[in-house]
Amino acid sequence: MDDPKIKEVFQWLIKAEHDIGSARRLVSGDIPYLDTAVYHCQQAAEKSLKAYLTLKDSPFQKIHDLSFLVDQCKELDIEFEKIMYISSILTPYAIAFRYPGDVIEPDPQDADEALRLAVEVFDFVLNKMPDYVKKVLEQKRS
């Protein structure tokens, strides 16, 4: 992979995929850690969106607000409107359960939904990638 931009896109996607894998393990482990799982779900969506923005040479801020990132992606491809609703669900998980407070862990149904939505964002973004990026990612998995 000689193209530095494609290498960075690939790295964002790998990190997003690792966050999804971590969330899966944290949700389904013998002792579930749902607070950490939903954080990884938010991170997976964020990194997926940043992979797309990198592909399109669209600089982005160091921000965890998925609505902001989806809006930026929508400027390049209106189809990102389809996943806007996910941003309002996942964005709060960037900080909601990371520190002590009134509620320290989400409900299991919320964690399952967060995981499903993170995968939806990842798959949506992956579908926007050129075939050669998908192929390299597939090779990494095998």
Description:
The protein has 142 residues and is mainly alpha-helical. The protein is 67% helix and 0% strand. The chain is built from 6 helices and no strands. The protein has helices at 4-28, 34-55, 66-74, 84-90, 108-128, 131-141. Helix 1 (4-28) packs antiparallel against helix 5 (108-128).
Number of distinct beta strands = 0
N-to-C SSE string, H for helix and E for strand: HHHHHH
- Rounded mean pLDDT is 94
- Ends apart, CA distance between termini: 17 Å
Shape: globular
Low-confidence stretches: none
Main β-sheet description: none
Counting H and I runs of at least 4 residues, what is the number of helices? Answer: 6
- Beta-strand content bin: under 5%
Helix content: 55-70%
Structural class of the helix and strand makeup?
Answer: mainly alpha
As a whole number of angstroms, the C-alpha radius of gyration is: 15 Å
Quickly list its features.
single chain; 142 residues; mainly alpha; 6 helices; 0% strand
